[in-house]
Structure formats: structure tokens, C-alpha cells
């Protein structure tokens, strides 16, 4: 096969793919009218349209310039909750994808529309978004500091140790960073703590052999917090949640200032954790492994101990 033939076949494949993505003219017209009603936040008009079979058939179709969107994604992008509820009530596909593999939930998170995020999750949306999308709702919320949205995602079982998905050829140290890294680097302490409370690994490190083979060193969250000069509160949280404090001294030597963060680390090395603290770590580790961290309140123990397990005292 010649290179010219190969190029022609590739162009044919691309053309075929785009032709499959393009809706029929009749569907596109119907979808546009649905999207117009949504853009105007006219949920009564939307309900009227969806009462007709012609428009119900278009409920999961895509239309619009740039990145064609389904009506549900349009509602999520605008934060129009009543329209979103109307679409869901008429059978809109909750995890429909656009050409960038973005779900309506991902769009609602990006737009900081908490009420729409909650409605989509209640309707069964995958809290992790699409496996085909490079980013995820949790990574977006952690980066932007959307605490309430992040809490909602985590309460519905979103993955706390997720990382960005990139091609092998683009793998580097940045790609192996998860939500904890992102929250620390962008200075979102409440998001950082929330992730740890929901079971994020305080020693999280990339385990992908393909990525590790392409970078000089894959660092832990504690390494990153020290290198980026994060406040001592981040270090204390990592210590409280059981991070390994015996990291390379070379990392500490490279830190410009021997400030409070370094002192916390050195003190933790000298003075071992109390028995109570070790028991808390053991119980939380067991519950996390069993995916039952949210069942602490159901334990038959005094409230003061429940608070201790939840790090609220």
C-alpha cells in the first residue's frame, strides 16, 4: 500500500466518522428548536415540544455550531435546572457524549452549576464522567476549588485517586498527578481535606509503568507539597491521614526555607503516633478498602469517637 493510498483511506475514514456524527436534517431541526427553548430557559415551551413524538425522537440528537450538543448538555451548560429536569423526565440519556467525550455532568461541573450536578447524579450520571475524556469531574472541581460540587461528586462514589488520561507519547511527571496534587498546587485546602476524608491515598503515586519509564522521578503528594512550598496545614493533614513521612532527605534539603512544614515533618519522625491515632488510621483504612467510609455514623460507638474518626475534633 502506497503512502498516497494510505492518506486517501485515512481521509475517507475521517469523513465517514464525521458523517456518522452529523444528525439527519429533520432531527437537527428538531434538536435546534429544543436547544432554543433551553437557551431561553423556557421549560414550559420545552415540555410542550417534548409532548410531541417528533421532538421526543430528537431528545438525544446533537446540533449547533462548534461542538454539537445534546439538549441535556445545553441545559447543563446554561445551568437551567427546570429544563434539565424536564429533559430527564422525558427520557434524555443522562451520560450522552459530545465529540470531545464530555458528559452533561462534566459540563455542569465546569460551569459551577451545583443544582444541575445534583440533579444529574440523582438521575444516575456516572460521577467519574466518561472514560474516553482526558479529564474528569473530580479533577475539574479540585482544580477550580469547587468544594460543594466536589463533595457532591464524592458522596456519589467518584474516584478520589483518578488522574488525567493522556496518550503514551505525552506522558510526563504532570500527567501522573491526581486530585490531591491539583488541590494542593492550586491552594484549595478545603478540597484537599475533603479528598482525604473520602479515602484519597495520602501516599498517592503513579503506578503506570509506561509513564514511570518516561520520567526521571514520580513523586508522592508530600514531595510535591514540600517542593511547591504548600502551607503547613497541607503537611499536617497528610501526616494525620497516615502519609509516609520518611521521604528522601534530598527533597527536604532542596526546600528553600526550613519552615513550619519541615518542622512538622521532623517532629513526626521523632515522635511516633499515639495509639488512638494509629487505631483511627487502621479503622479508616479498613472502611476505605470496604468502600464504607460513609458508614462511620452507623458504628455503635460514642459520638465523640465518630467525630474523631471523621477528623472533626
UniProtKB/TrEMBL annotation:
It comes from the Eukaryota. The keyword NAD does not apply. GO terms for biological process: intracellular signal transduction; positive regulation of transcription by RNA polymerase II. One of its GO terms (molecular function) is transcription cis-regulatory region binding. Signal peptide: none annotated. Pathway: Protein modification; protein ubiquitination. This is Ankyrin repeat and SOCS box protein 12. Interacts with CUL5 and RNF7. Residues 266-313 form the SOCS box domain. SMART domains: ANK, SOCS_box. Keywords: ANK repeat, Repeat, Ubl conjugation pathway. CDD domains: SOCS. Probable substrate-recognition component of a SCF-like ECS (Elongin-Cullin-SOCS-box protein) E3 ubiquitin-protein ligase complex which mediates the ubiquitination and subsequent proteasomal degradation of target proteins. InterPro entries: Ankyrin-SOCS_Box (IPR050663), Ankyrin_rpt (IPR002110), Ankyrin_rpt-contain_sf (IPR036770), SOCS_box (IPR001496), SOCS_box-like_dom_sf (IPR036036). GO terms for cellular component: nucleus. ANK repeats lie at residues 67-99, 100-132, 133-165, 175-207. Pfam families: Ank_2 (PF12796), SOCS_box (PF07525). It comes from Silurus meridionalis (Southern catfish).
Amino acid at each position: 500500500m502506497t503512502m498516497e493510498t494510505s492518506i486517501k483511506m485515512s481521509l475517507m475514514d475521517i469523513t465517514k466518522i464525521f458523517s456518522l456524527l452529523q444528525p439527519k436534517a429533520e432531527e437537527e431541526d428538531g434538536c435546534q428548536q429544543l436547544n432554543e427553548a433551553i437557551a431561553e430557559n423556557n421549560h414550559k415551551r420545552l415540555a410542550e415540544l417534548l409532548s410531541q413524538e417528533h421532538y421526543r425522537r430528537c431528545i438525544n440528537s446533537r446540533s449547533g455550531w462548534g461542538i454539537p450538543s445534546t439538549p441535556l448538555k445545553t441545559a447543563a451548560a446554561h445551568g437551567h435546572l427546570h429544563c434539565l429536569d424536564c429533559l430527564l423526565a422525558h427520557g434524555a440519556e443522562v451520560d450522552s457524549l459530545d465529540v470531545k467525550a464530555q458528559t452533561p455532568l462534566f459540563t455542569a461541573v465546569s460551569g459551577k452549576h451545583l443544582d444541575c450536578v445534583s440533579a444529574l447524579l440523582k438521575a444516575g450520571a456516572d460521577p467519574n464522567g466518561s472514560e474516553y475524556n482526558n479529564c474528569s469531574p473530580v479533577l475539574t472541581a479540585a482544580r477550580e476549588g469547587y468544594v460543594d460540587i466536589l463533595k457532591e461528586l464524592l458522596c456519589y462514589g467518584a474516584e478520589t485517586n483518578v488522574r488525567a488520561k493522556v496518550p503514551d507519547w505525552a506522558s510526563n511527571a504532570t500527567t501522573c498527578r491526581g486530585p490531591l496534587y491539583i488541590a494542593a498546587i492550586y491552594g484549595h485546602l478545603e478540597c484537599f481535606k475533603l479528598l482525604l476524608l473520602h479515602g484519597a491515598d495520602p501516599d498517592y503515586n503513579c503506578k503506570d509503568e509506561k509513564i514511570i519509564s518516561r520520567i526521571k522521578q514520580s513523586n508522592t503528594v508530600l514531595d510535591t507539597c514540600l517542593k511547591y512550598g504548600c502551607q503547613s496545614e497541607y503537611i499536617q493533614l497528610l501526616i494525620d491521614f497516615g502519609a509516609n513521612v520518611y521521604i528522601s532527605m534530598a527533597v527536604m534539603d532542596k526546600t528553600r526555607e526550613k519552615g513550619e512544614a519541615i518542622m512538622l515533618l521532623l517532629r513526626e519522625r521523632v515522635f511516633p503516633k499515639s495509639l488512638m491515632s494509629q487505631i483511627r488510621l487502621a479503622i479508616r483504612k479498613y472502611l476505605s478498602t470496604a468502600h464504607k467510609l460513609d458508614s462511620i455514623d452507623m458504628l455503635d460507638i460514642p459520638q465523640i469517637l465518630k467525630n474523631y474518626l471523621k477528623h472533626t475534633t
